[in-house]
Structure formats: C-alpha cells, structure tokens
Amino acid sequence: MRIVYMGTPDFAVPALEKIVSCGWDVPLVVTKPDRPASRGHKIQQCDVKKKALELGLAVESPEKVKNNPEFAARLREIAPDFIVVAAYGKILPKEILDIPAYGCINIHGSLLPKYRGAAPIQRSVLAADPESGVTIMYMAEECDAGDMLAQRAIPIAGKTSEQVFDELSVLGADLLVECLPKIVSGELKGVPQDASLATHAAMIAKEEGQIDWDRSAKALESHVLGMYSWPIAFTSLNGEVFKIHAAKAADRRTKAAPGTVVSSGKEGIGVACGDGGVLLLTKVQLPGKKAMDAGAFLLGHTVETGTVLG
Fold first, then answer.
1. Sheet with 2-7, side-by-side order of all strands
2. Mutual angle of helices 13-21 and 47-54, in 10-degree steps
3. CATH superfamily for domain 206-300
C-alpha cells in the first residue's frame, strides 16, 4: 500500500507511526511550512516533520497546495493508493483529492457530523459533552463534509482538551489502519453525513480563555477543562492576569456576587459564580511564575475572601 501522509501537529504523529509500523510504503510526508516559535522567533519544525525525518521519510512543506501545479504533479508522479490527512491545516483542492487510487482519507477528531471545523476536540470539551471520538472519512471539497467510513467514541467527562487530544490521536491511528485494507478490498463503504446535524467548531481564539463569572460553576469547570493546555482559562487578580489551570465546581452555594472569592485555603480558592454555585480553583499561575497548586500558591500570596476576580 502506497500512502502520502499529510499532517502537522502532535495529534497527527501516532497515525504516521502506525502506518510505518504496518510496513506500508510512505514515499512522502507533507506538512505545513516551518514557522518561528513564539519565544525567540527561532524557526521550529512541526511535530509531524520531526517524526518523519526521524523515521527517514521524505518531507515537503509547500506554502500552498491550491493552484500549485508543481506539487500536484509531484503527487501524480508518486501515484499513491491513499492520501491520508490528519490535522494538516489546509483545505485540499479537487485536483489533489482526485489523485489517489482509493481516495483522500481524513482522521477527524469528533463524531461527525457534529463539530466540523478547526477545533472539534476543544469545542466538545467546552460544551461538556459526555463523549467524543474520531471519524475516519473521505475528504471532500467542503470542509469535513465527506462520507464517513468508521467512528469510535470515548467518554470525556472530566478530561481536559489535552487529555482528549492524546486519547483521540491514538484511537484515530488504530482505527485508520483497520479501515485502509477494508477500503481496498471493498468491504468498507462511505456513508453520507446528515448535513442538518452539522455544527461548526471554529478555531479557538486566545481571548476565549477569559472567564465570565456570570456563568454557572459547572459551565466554568468545563471552560477550564476545554481551555487546557491552550490558551489556558484566565481572569484577573489585583490587576494581573491570573491563569486557571485546573478547577472544579464545588458542592456548595453562595449569595456572593459573581467573581467574589468566598473561600481561600489549602483546598483551593472558591469563587462565586452566576448561578450561586462556587468554582474551586485548584491550580493557578501569575505572570512570570510557574503554575502551582492553589494551596501552595496561597502560602506566598494572600487572596482574602471578598476579593473580586476579573
């Protein structure tokens, strides 16, 4: 089996490793171009490129895939059975979708048709969905709208986006290698999506991390889970950005105004929420400092009851 692999972040690494471990031919790995890192502005290779080079695979990182006849010609020369895509970060044009003998296959991090788009995993955690999963699907010109080949679900309650990313990256890799031989044999056929059930999972913006204390304690618990490990949920404490790495809805009520600190001790910092519930902050961080358990943080910082966050 001859496979061109297209992916960029760490989510896409397990599938590449799995394909190689199966002994299938990977003549080319395609990633987004190297970009400057956020700190120091040094050029940094993406995770898939690092892994591909480690595995001794050829890598190309075109600036664009649409209206790029040289790149399309390169793919036609390879004549792949499949192009497999996982979080590549670019939409493939029809001229590329039509190249592989058995189609372009995508590993998508949601149970389609729900959460089409750039941030399906974080959106499902933010929405407090009880489960998420992966969908193996044919790619189409419309984003995440192709026929579905297989799905597998996992429970995600209480998990951070980072934890779900890690689980689904492995789950997607395993499901992919189960599907590819069945596609070749004709055993597995695509099933059209019900477009009426589709929702859009827009890319997460850094500003979305800000906590709105008028929301319920349970909603804010999901907010903190969904924003980890990027961009991290945040509020303000005494005029400084106060990042919240972990928090949970406490089993108690309060009449204090939303955003008011109602308890402060080794178990955490309790903050009033809009529904009268309390969100217990258990891991926090100030600018220039390391993230700390709230109890340890309070040994060096005073956060009195009555303090208003945000």
1. 59-60, 25-30, 2-7, 82-86, 104-108, 131-138, 148-155
2. 20
3. Formyl transferase, C-terminal domain (3.10.25.10)
Can you tell me which residue has the tokens 């729900």?
Answer: 114
Distance CA 52, CA 72 (A): 21
Mean pLDDT, 10 residues at a time, the chain of 310 residues: 97 98 98 78 88 98 96 98 96 96 98 97 98 97 95 98 98 98 98 96 97 98 98 97 98 98 97 98 97 96 96
String of DSSP letters for 7-61: E-SGGGHHHHHHHHHTT-EEEEEE-PPPEE-TTTT-EE--HHHHHHHHTT--EE-
Domain spanning 2-201 has what CATH number? Answer: 3.40.50.170
Q: Are 120 and 109 in contact, with CB atoms under 8 Å apart?
A: yes
- Are domains 2-201 and 206-300 of this chain identical in fold? no
pLDDT attached to residue 41: 63
- In the prediction, which pLDDT does 74 show? 97
Question: Cis ω on the peptide bond leading into residue 36 (within 30° of 0)?
Answer: no
Q: Domain ranges in the chain? A: 2-201, 206-300
